[in-house]
Design brief:
CATH architecture of the largest domain in chain B: 3-Layer(aba) Sandwich
Number of domains of chain B: 4
Largest sheet of chain A: 3 strands, mixed
Strand content of chain A: 15-25%
CATH class of the largest domain in chain B: Alpha Beta
CATH superfamily of the largest domain in chain B: Dimethylsulfoxide Reductase, domain 2
Shape of chain A: globular
Number of helices of chain A: 6
Order of helices and strands of chain A: EHEEHEEHEEHHEHE
CATH architecture of one domain in chain A: 2-Layer Sandwich
Strand order of the largest sheet of chain B: 6-5-16-15-14-7-8
Largest sheet of chain B: 7 strands, mixed
Number of helices of chain B: 27
Helix content of chain B: 25-40%
Oligomer: heterodimer
Shape of chain B: globular
Distance between the termini of chain B: 57 Å
Strand content of chain B: 15-25%
């Protein structure tokens, strides 16, 4: 099993439906976005092109965060997902330093305001590091991550690269998508297409 | 679907969002033990196909927000002091209706203004009718002359209906997006547009800022804010001059082509490039691409309504589609139609004649702005907000003593906020219906707690975005004693003894569905949707709804009423060219009103998940300009006009002209863009405050 995501930057318009679906579904606190969309600009006015680039935990095959965690709180589960055991995390932030994609976030206990109920999977902790999990709580039900489902433009495709029939596998074979920071040797599982 | 799991009763209900009032997207709401847990796009919705926006997804936090108003409030301290007592609905409704009745008997119904804002559930025209039945000529909208009305009038004059609202993305080969950013404001339309683009349709975007959709364009035309009419005229110059127009269509369906051709002669690409700051070759290229892509469609929104001459701009953009043969055809722009329910956009529904004839002549702004305020040719004449503010402050031409405001926040949303603040402080009686103590509600005498879309039954029947099928909305939750805006109107109407109003929401909804021989309850039980296929060519076959039965490139009616019958360019009243002296002090051309995907007008900044994504109000400013002013990305800046100043955070971009800045709308306090605006100059005939293309300066405020 090797979960992966392909994001078509040609289809991403930077509307942040994904960002907000993630925040709601994963109950992330103020200032914490497991998934976010950054804007890159290529060129200068008037010959400029904005590019919206979603960033999330890249689920690296060669994960730097795994190597530096002193308490083994960051671990790889039986599905190959890099996850964090909040009970073991001591909030030392080594992993945040190590992550080449700035995909990890320290939870300083800023939470949604009192009275707004926990509505997602209840990831409410403090003093720990947290990050995108590919919505691992949904995968066993066969549901894709929330960001994939929320995208109005079908920019994201998710699936198991070891399934030859999966759309994600076919896309990776056909489109030869790019990864972010390919020279780092991290072998991330999030791919990008539509970059000219 | 209902499943029992670990004592959790889980169910998923299909309903329609109404967080923005306009798109009304089909959504699936998942509840656990009666608590709303998740909102996601409904991929089976015949109109929106699963498109959803951050606002809808985050509506759970709106529904359960701790600051929601749960009971009616009555002011006990000084106005704006924040001292309230809780009241029963009966008492609150009695206070409001007694006061409105007393003022009506003492000063006439015209002393009562009824103003609406956000359409939290397809009730705009219900409130319109309510005001007419009460007898006041002074019904108005925060949008009004700033949104939809000018372009509805222009479209009615040109081809007798709102075809610009329904671009047929599914079958088009080219989309011309004019001054709107559908990914932020119309996700279902943006979804269709992006699908068209993916299958090869060309995309031309006119916008001073490289917006989300402009970033995807084949051609981006960064027009100087407020000079749009010149750009449209320049494109017509090329299309007609090079013989690229649809001769057969023009001959068969249009009148006034020769006059139009003469009119656009002056608008050479060279001259238009000087006016609009768009490169000459880009103007020519865009005109050719648009005219040579058949069919092509046009997507517009409120930019067309917010310039110095909104009727001319809407006419010019509409006419581009007419001379290229793209109106009422597949892949072009088509006329809105419905599944057959009662239309709420008619005189029969709104009952404007309930206002006595002599009072109708007293409508505030009626004399100066007859296109807005008299009954032509749209069905909902309204009063003019800046004139209402004047009447409150000066007592002339007669005193305005009360405002009943439903869904609106004029403290922030009316141009020239200082004047709005003075008027809202001064008016004798202010009643506000809202979900929260908005800036306007804080000034009120009585606040009535309204509900969100998750708490309402209703029809999703927006004429702007439905593309035909009728969908519906179901009440899934309730918060305190808050009720829907329509229920508030029903309670007030009962107390005011207004005739010809409904006794319950259900009765109202059933009355709309009568032609379909179904009740609201039956509609919901049957899935909640009535399909309606796209229809094309009706007006090509049967004639257009204009005096001539043709598309009127030359408008005889405009001529008759004393306006120019053909589009022409008017320089903004304030600009580097019309006021060069002022431009020395205020060197930047400003565009305001830009929307982002996370907020709707002045609302939703208090929703945690949304605020997290867009935490501060951003000023779009060119990188080199910012550098010359010593401003770095993310630093605080002050924007100043002759009328006021506000504080924003600099967002440096190459996606804007070095002499243009983009100011966001809807933020409160010292980031409120309406503090920068003058409302004393309004457009001819229609009374629009120009919000695009005025002058400002920017300075760094380093700590």
């Amino acid at each position: 099993m090797k979960y992966a995501m392909v994001i078509d930057l040609n289809q991403c318009v930077g509307c942040d439906a994904c960002t907000v679906a993630c925040k709601l579904g994963n109950d992330t606190g103020t200032d914490i976005r497991w998934g976010r969309v950054i804007t890159e600009e290529l060129g200068a006015f008037p010959d400029v092109k904005k590019l919206y680039v979603p960033i999330l935990c890249m689920q690296c095959e060669n994960a730097e965060c795994l190597k530096v965690c002193p308490t083994k709180a960051t671990y790889r589960d039986e599905r190959g997902l890099v996850l964090i055991d909040y009970d073991k995390c001591i909030g030392c932030k080594y992993c945040m330093e190590a992550c080449p994609y700035m995909a990890r976030h320290f939870n300083e206990a800023k939470q949604p305001p009192q009275g707004v109920p926990v509505i997602g999977n209840g990831n409410l902790r403090k003093g720990i590091v947290e990050k995108c999990t590919f919505c691992e709580d949904r995968l066993s039900d066969g549901k894709p991550p929330r960001c994939v489902e929320a995208c109005p433009y079908d920019a994201r495709v998710f699936g198991d690269l070891e399934d030859p029939e999966a759309d994600v596998t076919k896309l990776v074979q056909k489109e030869k998508p790019l990864v972010m920071k390919p020279d780092g040797g991290y072998n991330p599982s999030v791919y990008y297409t539509g970059v000219k | 679907m209902s499943t029992g799991h670990l004592n959790v009763q889980s169910e998923t209900v299909k309903t329609c969002c109404c967080i923005c009032g306009h798109n009304q997207c089909g959504v699936e709401v998942r509840l656990e033990n009666g608590i709303v847990k998740e909102i996601r796009g409904d991929k089976d919705d015949p109109v929106t196909q699963g498109a959803i926006c951050p606002k809808s997804i985050a509506s759970v936090q709106l529904l359960y927000h701790p600051d929601r108003l749960k009971v009616p409030l009555v002011r006990v301290g000084e106005r704006g002091e924040g001292k309230w007592r809780e009241a029963s609905w009966d008492e609150a409704i009695t206070i409001v209706s007694d006061k409105l009745n007393r003022i009506k008997s003492e000063s006439g119904a015209e002393a009562v203004v009824m103003a609406r804002g956000t359409n939290r559930g397809s009730w705009i025209r219900v409130f319109n009718r309510f005001a007419n039945l009460f007898g006041t000529p002074n019904w108005t909208e925060s949008g009004g002359a700033q949104c939809f009305t000018p372009r509805a009038i222009a479209q009615s004059l040109s081809f007798g209906g709102n075809a610009l609202e329904w671009p047929d993305f599914a079958k088009t080969k080219c989309v011309l997006v004019w001054g709107t950013n559908p990914p932020a404001t119309w996700p279902p339309k943006a979804r269709k547009l992006m699908a068209a683009r993916k299958r090869g349709a060309k995309l031309i975007v006119v916008d001073p800022v490289q917006s989300n959709i402009a970033a995807k364009a084949d051609l981006w035309l960064p027009v100087r804010p407020g000079s749009d009419v010149a750009l449209a005229m320049g494109m017509m110059h090329v299309i007609i001059g090079e013989g690229l127009y649809n001769k057969d269509y023009v001959e068969r369906y249009c009148i006034g082509f020769e006059d139009l051709a003469k009119r656009v002669l002056d608008y050479t690409p060279k001259k238009v490039a000087e006016i609009t700051w768009v490169e000459e070759k880009l103007i020519v290229e865009a005109a050719r691409l648009y005219a040579n892509s058949t069919p092509a469609c046009t997507e517009v929104a409120a930019t067309l309504d917010e310039v110095i001459d909104p009727i001319q701009l809407s006419r010019a953009v509409a006419i581009l589609g007419c001379i290229t043969g793209n109106v009422d055809v597949e892949g072009g722009n088509i006329f809105p139609h419905s599944a057959g329910q009662v239309s709420i956009d008619t005189n029969a529904f709104i009952m404007p004649d309930s206002v006595p004839a002599e009072l109708r002549t007293k409508r505030l702004g009626g004399d100066a702005y007859p296109l807005l305020s008299k009954n032509l040719p749209v069905n909902y004449p309204m009063a003019h907000w800046p004139t209402i503010l004047d009447a409150i402050l000066t007592g002339k031409p007669y005193p305005v003593r009360a405002i009943l405001e439903i869904g609106g926040n004029p403290w922030l949303s009316i141009a020239n906020s200082k004047r709005a603040h003075e008027a809202l402080r001064k008016v004798e009686f202010l009643a506000v219906a809202d979900l929260f103590l908005s800036k306007t509600a804080q000034m009120a005498d009585v606040v009535l707690p309204a509900s969100s879309w998750l708490e309402q039954n209703g029809l999703a029947d927006s004429s702007q975005a439905t593309y035909g099928p009728l969908r519906s909305r179901q009440k899934l939750a309730s918060v305190g004693e808050s009720v829907s805006d329509i229920e508030i109107m029903i309670r007030l109407a009962r107390k005011l003894n207004l005739p010809e109003f409904w006794n319950s929401e259900e009765e109202y909804l059933d009355s709309l569905l009568k032609p379909l021989n179904v009740t609201f309850a039956e509609l919901r039980a049957a899935g909640g949707t009535v399909d309606s296929p796209m229809s094309y060519g009706k007006h090509l076959r049967e004639g257009f709804n204009t005096p001539s039965g043709k598309i009127e490139l030359y408008s005889g009616r405009l001529k008759e009423w004393g306006y120019d019958p053909l589009p022409f360019y008017r320089e903004p009243h304030e600009s580097p060219y019309s006021t060069p002296e002022l431009a020395k002090e205020y060197p930047f051309v400003m565009t305001t009103g830009r929307r982002v995907s996370t907020y709707f007008h002045t609302g939703l900044r208090n929703i945690p998940a949304l605020r997290d994504v867009k935490p501060v109000p951003l000023l779009d400013i060119n990188l080199s300009t910012a550098e010359s002013l010593g401003i770095r990305d993310g630093e605080p800046v002050v924007v100043e006009t002759p009328y006021g100043q506000i504080s924003l955070t600099a967002s440096l971009t190459e996606g804007i002209h070095p002499r243009v800045v983009g100011v966001p709308h809807g933020w409160a306090d010292n980031s409120n863009d309406n503090l920068l605006m003058n409302n004393q100059v309004c457009s001819v005939g229609i009374g629009t405050t120009p919000l695009r293309g005025t002058l400002c300066r920017v300075r760094s405020v380093k700590p």
